[in-house]
User: Fold this.
Amino acid sequence: MGEEKTIRIDPVTRLEGHGALTIKLGKDNKVKDIQYNVGSTRFFEKFLTGRPMEEAPRIAPRICGICPIPHHLASVKAVEAAWDVTPPPAAVKLRRLMIEAKQLSSHAIHFYALAAPDFVFGPFADPAVRNVAAVLKHLPDVTVQAIKIMQFGQELIRDVGAKAIHPVTAIPGGMLNALTEEDRDKWLKQIPELFENVNKTVELAKTVVNAYIDVITKLAVTPTYYIGLTNNGVLDIYEGNVRVMGPDGKVVADFEPKDYTKYYGEHIPDHSYATHIYYKPAGYPDGIWRANTLARCNVAEKMATPLAQEALKEMRDLVGRPSHHTFVYHYARIVELVQAAEWIKILLEDPLIVSDDIKLTDVEPKAGDGVGIVEAPRGTLLHNYTSDEEGMLVHANLIVATNNNIAGIEKSLMTAAKQIFEDKALDSLKLPDPLVKT
Amino acid sequence: MAKRIALAQLSSCWGCDQSLVDLHLGLLDVLPKLDIVFWPTVVDYKLADLEALPNRSVHIGMVEGSCRTKEDLHLLKVMREKCKTLVAWGSCSIFGGVQGLANQWDLKELLERKFIQAETVTDPRIPDENMPGFTEHITPNPQIVECDVLLPGCPPTSENTLDALTALLTNKPFDLPTKTVCDQCPMERKEKHIKKFKRNYEGNIEAGKCILDQGYLCLGFATMGLCGAQCPSVTTPCKGCFGPTPIMSDHGAKIISALGAVAEMEPEELKGSFPDPIGSFYFTDYAASYLSKMRGKERGQEH
Ligand code: SF4
Ligand code: SF4
Ligand code: SF4
Assistant:
């Protein structure tokens, strides 16, 4: 008979953010409680207030250095919504180029640096080698292809946003800096190599998925609601309506960003500073939703671009729609990586991308309330600001991407922990030989 | 031989980390020179592993972020104990960072706004189970423990971080420049006749010409010149994210006196141009300012 015990994993590694995990086991290894403890928050909602509202897009990126572009853009969209400003089409294209470039680099870094060590060395490898430095040592070619994708994304962001981390060029009414033809041509030249590396990534992902299919389809399978942005049903990370899908696959809501308070509930757990966002009409915990790659691929009818659509179809043939398989997040990440690469190509080939008609000159602040939503790599991101007549920010509400996932993470951890501790699933799951033995 | 390095993140955005990763292929040269003993974003060592190391056994410690929680304070102190050379990495670490702006409010107000009053909250409470608790206000790391090297920036550029690491790996000093962003800026400067300050969405900022001359608040003149004038080079005002030069001087005081000298305006009118002087003049370094310290004293707080 086992004793009661608490397992604490502190910090949870290979993620950005301050997370620790507390697992409480009762006698006989019964899982009594799972807590995902997020131990930090910095109060942006409060200290954004009292500032000229056009400064918010400069401040907000500091919420996340891994996904500052979505914050920059959700922020500027919120200001524009409050002031009733519509930026010129060419400015919107530049913004989209920036966010697709971020999607590309973030998905690559996640897949290769954060997730791949588990697949490459196997989940039971020594922690000392289960990291990207070891991937570099054992698979230098794969590392170089990963780095090239990340570099493409990050440096393209820098050409549009001046800084890859905490970009500065989006401003209410448009963009402050045009893309030069010279820069555009430089990027177009690199497109073939990008697609080569993206294709290799897709192949690697498929190999991994097939090798781990038993784990993927059996472990941590967790039905929840899903939330994501779609543009007429098509997966879109810059603009559209917010769509919510129920665990049974039915779309239960499809609404404009400004109506979010009807659908968004925010549960404050006693054990995490990151709050749990959920589908309010269903209540908590029944309405727990998940965001991020798999959620977007679940709620969308289809992808926006042909190769990504092919990849989505292949994924759905394997795991269905909706997929509740937590590990399929990795697969969906690759589907989206393909869409980001295709979008980048489309945008660079668009003559408007080098237009200098990118900024309104007659923007006037006014009192109002504005909601800006985009998709960050890790999920639907919402900024809601209230402006006074002078354009000072008097109130802010932020629902950051990750908070849409915290309750879902706990829920799928609970499923996995029960399987592992109570049902001894690890004895029966079929694991492949690691790609690299250490 | 590789040097042992620990990279720790206090409350932060991870941007300083990302900027190191953005060395891209350059990483392939640097990584083999480093024996990483702690870097939660990337490797699987836990806090207990760091705590178990002998004191002063790690050659280089990089600390990103500032102390918003009591756990951050603990981690900062552990890093100081374990590392021979401690680097305050980024503006959060040196000055408190953008989250230092929260020092304009009491902790109670911050907590209430986030956990009690937010319009989406359905069951308000302040989380306290297995939670570290918050610091009353943000104190810059060098005021809590001794920091041997200061590398400002929000974030420092990848090259900045590489330069600092290279200096540390080769036992060379890492000195900060006395230059300002203006000294690195390609915009053409003329004599200043600023009669009115414009907000940055107004009109069009003309390329090639000094942004401040055009009547927009560009803080290049008071800001450490280490970033290569990234923002003004693309007609975007500098917000001063690298902090003041010299490094520990008061950013706001410098800015105000300089603006007083170049603006052809009555003092009242000048003051009226900046309804949010704290946010405008202390973007990432309010926690390090005299003003913030005074507020902390009024509240009778240490960290
Ligand atoms: S200094 Fe800036 S980039 Fe670095 S952690 Fe702080 S907010 Fe992020
Ligand atoms: S004030 Fe700004 S634009 Fe003018 S020279 Fe200095 S950094 Fe450049
Ligand atoms: S130009 Fe100013 S705001 Fe921009 S990165 Fe440099 S110091 Fe920071």
About this structure: The longest strand of chain A covers residues 368-376. Residues 5-37 of chain A form one domain. The CA atoms of residues 169 and 175 of chain A lie 5 Å apart. Residues B 181, 223, 227, 229-232, 238-242 surround iron/sulfur cluster (ligand 3) (CB under 6 Å).
